[in-house]
Amino acid sequence: MIETVEKPQDAPPVNFGIEEILKSLPHRYPFLLVDRVTHMDIGHQIKGYKNVSYNDPFFQGHFPHLPIMPGVLIVEALAQIGCILVSKMPEGEGKLVLFAGIDGVRFRRQVVPGDRLDLYAEIIKIKGSLGKAYVKATINDELTADGEVLFSLLPKVNGERA
Protein backbone atom coordinates (compact mmCIF):
# COMPACT_ATOMS: atom_id res chain seq x y z
CA MET A 1 0.00 0.00 0.00
CA ILE A 2 1.30 3.46 -0.90
CA GLU A 3 0.58 6.38 1.41
CA THR A 4 -0.35 9.88 0.31
CA VAL A 5 2.32 12.54 0.77
CA GLU A 6 1.06 15.59 2.59
CA LYS A 7 2.21 19.09 1.64
CA PRO A 8 4.69 20.49 4.17
CA GLN A 9 3.53 23.66 5.88
CA ASP A 10 5.18 26.94 4.82
CA ALA A 11 7.61 25.27 2.39
CA PRO A 12 9.88 27.99 0.96
CA PRO A 13 9.93 28.33 -2.85
CA VAL A 14 13.13 27.36 -4.63
CA ASN A 15 14.48 28.74 -7.91
CA PHE A 16 17.67 27.38 -9.50
CA GLY A 17 19.51 26.89 -12.75
CA ILE A 18 21.62 24.32 -14.48
CA GLU A 19 24.32 23.98 -11.80
CA GLU A 20 21.83 22.73 -9.20
CA ILE A 21 20.00 20.62 -11.79
CA LEU A 22 23.28 18.85 -12.59
CA LYS A 23 23.67 18.10 -8.87
CA SER A 24 20.14 16.67 -8.75
CA LEU A 25 20.08 14.48 -11.89
CA PRO A 26 22.54 12.00 -13.38
CA HIS A 27 21.50 13.04 -16.93
CA ARG A 28 23.87 14.93 -19.22
CA TYR A 29 23.84 16.23 -22.80
CA PRO A 30 22.07 15.29 -24.98
CA PHE A 31 19.59 13.73 -22.56
CA LEU A 32 19.25 16.49 -19.94
CA LEU A 33 15.82 17.97 -20.69
CA VAL A 34 15.32 20.52 -17.88
CA ASP A 35 16.88 23.98 -18.20
CA ARG A 36 15.60 25.69 -15.06
CA VAL A 37 13.55 25.08 -11.92
CA THR A 38 11.32 28.06 -11.21
CA HIS A 39 9.51 26.90 -8.09
CA MET A 40 9.66 23.98 -5.69
CA ASP A 41 7.77 23.11 -2.55
CA ILE A 42 9.96 20.26 -1.34
CA GLY A 43 7.88 17.15 -0.84
CA HIS A 44 4.92 18.50 -2.77
CA GLN A 45 5.39 20.13 -6.20
CA ILE A 46 7.90 21.54 -8.66
CA LYS A 47 7.80 23.79 -11.72
CA GLY A 48 10.47 24.34 -14.34
CA TYR A 49 11.00 24.49 -18.07
CA LYS A 50 12.89 23.35 -21.12
CA ASN A 51 13.65 25.80 -23.89
CA VAL A 52 13.04 23.89 -27.11
CA SER A 53 15.60 24.81 -29.78
CA TYR A 54 16.04 23.77 -33.39
CA ASN A 55 19.58 22.86 -32.28
CA ASP A 56 18.25 20.05 -30.03
CA PRO A 57 19.75 16.85 -31.49
CA PHE A 58 16.46 14.94 -31.80
CA PHE A 59 15.23 17.36 -34.49
CA GLN A 60 17.82 15.95 -36.95
CA GLY A 61 15.63 12.92 -37.40
CA HIS A 62 12.21 13.93 -35.99
CA PHE A 63 11.50 15.33 -38.52
CA PRO A 64 14.01 17.16 -40.75
CA HIS A 65 11.34 19.16 -42.63
CA LEU A 66 8.74 19.27 -39.83
CA PRO A 67 10.55 19.48 -36.48
CA ILE A 68 8.33 18.11 -33.68
CA MET A 69 9.65 17.16 -30.24
CA PRO A 70 9.04 13.42 -29.75
CA GLY A 71 6.31 12.65 -27.20
CA VAL A 72 8.58 10.20 -25.43
CA LEU A 73 11.02 13.08 -24.75
CA ILE A 74 8.23 15.28 -23.41
CA VAL A 75 7.42 12.48 -20.96
CA GLU A 76 11.13 12.14 -20.14
CA ALA A 77 11.36 15.89 -19.40
CA LEU A 78 8.37 15.53 -17.06
CA ALA A 79 9.96 12.53 -15.36
CA GLN A 80 13.21 14.49 -14.93
CA ILE A 81 11.48 17.45 -13.26
CA GLY A 82 9.76 14.98 -10.94
CA CYS A 83 13.08 13.28 -10.17
CA ILE A 84 14.58 16.62 -9.19
CA LEU A 85 11.75 17.09 -6.69
CA VAL A 86 12.12 13.59 -5.24
CA SER A 87 15.91 13.95 -5.01
CA LYS A 88 15.41 16.93 -2.67
CA MET A 89 13.06 15.03 -0.34
CA PRO A 90 14.28 13.05 2.69
CA GLU A 91 13.05 9.87 0.94
CA GLY A 92 15.32 10.64 -2.01
CA GLU A 93 18.47 11.45 -0.06
CA GLY A 94 21.26 9.07 -1.05
CA LYS A 95 19.03 7.43 -3.67
CA LEU A 96 18.95 7.18 -7.43
CA VAL A 97 15.45 8.13 -8.62
CA LEU A 98 14.43 6.00 -11.59
CA PHE A 99 11.54 6.48 -14.00
CA ALA A 100 9.43 3.33 -13.56
CA GLY A 101 6.33 3.85 -15.70
CA ILE A 102 3.55 6.06 -16.98
CA ASP A 103 -0.22 6.00 -16.57
CA GLY A 104 -2.77 7.82 -18.68
CA VAL A 105 -0.41 10.23 -20.43
CA ARG A 106 -2.08 12.13 -23.26
CA PHE A 107 -0.54 14.52 -25.78
CA ARG A 108 -2.65 17.53 -26.68
CA ARG A 109 -0.38 19.82 -28.69
CA GLN A 110 2.79 19.58 -30.76
CA VAL A 111 6.04 20.98 -29.33
CA VAL A 112 8.23 22.74 -31.88
CA PRO A 113 11.45 24.78 -31.94
CA GLY A 114 11.04 28.13 -30.19
CA ASP A 115 8.57 26.80 -27.61
CA ARG A 116 9.21 27.05 -23.89
CA LEU A 117 7.93 23.78 -22.48
CA ASP A 118 6.74 24.51 -18.94
CA LEU A 119 6.99 21.42 -16.73
CA TYR A 120 5.07 20.61 -13.55
CA ALA A 121 5.08 17.64 -11.19
CA GLU A 122 3.16 17.02 -7.98
CA ILE A 123 3.76 14.06 -5.69
CA ILE A 124 0.64 11.92 -5.30
CA LYS A 125 2.02 9.05 -3.21
CA ILE A 126 5.33 7.73 -1.99
CA LYS A 127 6.18 4.87 0.31
CA GLY A 128 9.42 3.01 0.65
CA SER A 129 11.00 2.66 -2.76
CA LEU A 130 7.89 3.39 -4.87
CA GLY A 131 6.03 6.54 -5.75
CA LYS A 132 3.68 8.29 -8.15
CA ALA A 133 3.38 11.88 -9.38
CA TYR A 134 0.93 13.83 -11.50
CA VAL A 135 2.77 15.65 -14.30
CA LYS A 136 1.82 18.16 -16.95
CA ALA A 137 3.52 20.18 -19.66
CA THR A 138 2.18 23.45 -21.03
CA ILE A 139 3.16 26.06 -23.60
CA ASN A 140 1.81 29.56 -22.96
CA ASP A 141 -0.65 28.03 -20.45
CA GLU A 142 -1.99 25.66 -23.13
CA LEU A 143 -1.95 22.02 -22.01
CA THR A 144 0.56 20.01 -24.04
CA ALA A 145 0.66 16.70 -22.16
CA ASP A 146 -0.42 15.33 -18.81
CA GLY A 147 -0.70 12.09 -16.87
CA GLU A 148 1.03 10.20 -14.08
CA VAL A 149 4.59 8.93 -13.77
CA LEU A 150 5.78 6.17 -11.49
CA PHE A 151 9.23 6.14 -9.96
CA SER A 152 11.40 3.91 -7.84
CA LEU A 153 14.18 4.80 -5.44
CA LEU A 154 17.34 2.71 -5.44
CA PRO A 155 20.55 3.08 -3.46
CA LYS A 156 23.19 5.07 -5.36
CA VAL A 157 25.89 2.96 -6.95
CA ASN A 158 29.49 4.15 -7.49
CA GLY A 159 28.74 7.68 -6.28
CA GLU A 160 26.01 8.34 -8.86
CA ARG A 161 23.92 11.40 -8.12
CA ALA A 162 20.18 11.08 -7.83
What report would you give on this structure?
This protein has one domain: Hotdog Thioesterase (Thiol Ester Dehydrase, Chain A, Roll). The chain is 15% helix and 38% strand. It has 2 helices and 6 strands. The longest helix is centred in the middle third of the chain and has 17 residues, at 71-87.
Concise structural overview:
The protein is mainly β and 162 residues long. It has two helices and six strands; from the N terminus they run αββαββββ.
Do you know the CATH topology? Thiol Ester Dehydrase, Chain A
What top-tier CATH class fits best? Alpha Beta
- What fraction, in percent, of the residue positions are helical? 10-25%
User: What structural class is derived from the secondary structure elements?
Assistant: mainly beta
What proportion of the residues form beta strands (DSSP E)? Answer: 35-45%
Report low-confidence residues grouped into runs of 5 or more. Answer: none
Query: What is the N-to-C order of secondary-structure elements (H for helix, E for strand)?
Result: HEEHEEEE
CATH superfamily: Hotdog Thioesterase
- Oligomeric composition of the shown chains: single chain
The N- to C-terminal Cα distance equals 24 Å
Strands of the biggest beta sheet: in what spatial order?
A: 1-2-4-5-6-3
> What value does the Rg take, in angstroms?
15 Å
Task: State the CATH architecture.
Answer: Roll
Q: Main sheet? A: 6 strands, antiparallel
